[in-house]
Fold this sequence. Notes:
It is built from 22 helices and 12 strands. By secondary structure, it is an alpha+beta fold.
Amino acid sequence: MRILTRYILREVTAHALIGVGVFTFVLFTRDLGQILELVVRNSAPLPSVVQVFFFIVPVTLTISIPAGVLVGILIGLSRLAADSEITAMRASGIGVWSFLRTISIFAVAAWLLALFNGVYLAPHSQAALVRLQDRLKAAQVSFEVQPRVFYEGFPQLVLYVQNVKAAQGAAIWKGVFIADMSNPSSPRITLARQGILVSEGPEMLHLHLTDGSTHETDPRGTDHYQISTFEQTDIQIPVAQADSAKEREMAPVSQMTTPDLWTRAREVSDPVAARLYLIEFHRRFALPTSCLVLALVGIPLGLSSKKGGKSTGFVLTILLVFVYYSASLVGVSLARQGKLPPGLGVWLADIAFFLGGVFLLWRAERRPFEISSVRSLWHRLRGGATENGGSARTHRADGAFQRAVNRRRVFSANFPTILDDYVLRDFGMNLALVLSVFLMLLLVFTLFELLGDILRNQISPLVVGEYLLNVSPYFLYNITPLSILLAVLVTLGVMQRSNEITAIKATGISIYRIITPVLLATVVLAVGLFFSDQIYLPHANKRQDALRNLIKGKPAQTYLNPDRKWIFGAHSDIYYYQLFDSDRDEFGRLAVFQFDPVTFQLSKRIFAERAHWEDTLGRWVCTQGWERDLRGPAIENYRTFDVATFPVVNEPPTYFKKEVKQSSEMNYAELRRYIGDLQQSGFDVVRLRVQLQKKLAFPVITLVMAILAVPFSLSGARRGAVTGVAVAVGIAVVYWTVAGLFEAMGNISQLPPVLAAWSPDLIFAMVGGYLILKVPA
């Protein structure tokens, strides 16, 4: 009995660990870019980067541990049932309750781990992550300033830098323009040839400027203008600090310790706030307990999966996890609305699954529930189970070739052949299963993230459903490469393990011919991803972004940003305005700073109370203002005007009506035009250039993943499917880490955008191609 106990536990645990690893990695990739950018900027010490990594992981484990437990039980028992090992065990006198006692050891261990994570580790990690980010803020801000971009992150300062060079613990700036906005109607302007910025602590930065000048005006008298030159000067710049009281007030309950939640719930006078604290308190215990109730449901279902094998385990995992978290969301929603007590609402899903698990166990002991009967019913409804009278018998034929011949073909042309059809069918089924699992996991995690906003803002379930429907294409676009990696590993690994690859090669067909349909299918998928990003995804992303703002209680997004008051012109000049009427094409209090791009000194300064666009002149007509021509510290010319036009002030109104878009909301051509428009006006386009190249490079990842998976699936199949999935996770971690590093380096101009986007594809494609060539043909 002890041998069987160890055997069952080893099978279940191995699959569960793989499930937890895959799910954690999928959820963690959303925050991977943040960590890698800290690394490539060298703006945070390595221990802090490691801390960020470990603070993010516990949050994902709250979802991935229960899902991994269900995966381990369903797939582990389904594999034993498919190989008739369950039948042999039960014939020897081992009943359902014996399996329950054995697997309860694993379930209780997972529950204790999830309980420690949910009650203690996850809330402490979230609170510690916020504190760490606050400490790193001062170190990060000196590296956030991008060249030829107006930076407004400092209190009452606007900064523009021509060029940025990173140094150890500092940033070296070439061509510095600083506007002190203490008095917005008359900003104090400082220009310098060079500046060095270093951090002096969490709340203060030190800026050392050389070879510059300061320009001051008096708003009460236009004839007062003061110029001060300097060879060297120092400026203390405070780092923007959030209002600590407001921050504490807005801090989510997820960052509070569990004892604090219970204390607040008992002491607070507001019944609504008390209900929120109690919901979060119970939720920290209910989610880990899902390990037990999901195991209770998974055991009888896994024992009944006699023919489905691991594919049945995947399908059941999708359905059960989705049903559980949907029931949990409904219960929490009812509790937030006061229709159910907080405890009952949060524990509703656990109670329902506990009762369902007890019923299934009782049924499995008396009369096992045959999942294969459901599948047979589905085939009969499709009309495929009784085709040609004897297909039920022919499907039971032994031998890979006979099974391939008897299977109904998807393609009827000469190409793909029967072999291609056989490989593609299994690949397509595995890909669909993996995509479904990952999509379900991301949707559930997204729902839990937005649950508080949904209930607080009383969002209709139809709006939530529409949001999930529109965000699903974005998730599918991003998880397809990883899903292809797993699907290829599983498909070819199973064929190799069952000696089908050996049988096919014995007929004279090389391994390169076997993998051809898979590679061609990934090329088709890559083309499909590209065109979906050009045609459908931008519209879906715009819609899901608008719905997310609605759920979050934010105002509807506008594509025109009226807060952009600093714009770089087309003639080495900088525009500043306090008001801009985009409907009438009129400025209020317009200032134009023209400078020498070589010395970075002001050569002309224009101010007008009002300016409007005149189509016939092709210029801005300025009224009630003044003009000064400057040469170093001297004013060569000064005049006032009632009405005037200037040849250098001729950018059309559309130049100032800059759209605010995300790269995901544009196709390649739109993003390329958008970059050109923003770059001319002095806005940050470094990240957008990287994203432009990624629109071409990302779909190619599907082919790269398939190339990488082929040699590993053929070499590792003998060690089992668990090893294959572990290899897939390892490959994905390495690839996405390298790709994230290259992208982060491109975002801070350490690599050209083309190299940042394409290098990971090229490197891993060459590695995969080399490994394929070493596989025996």
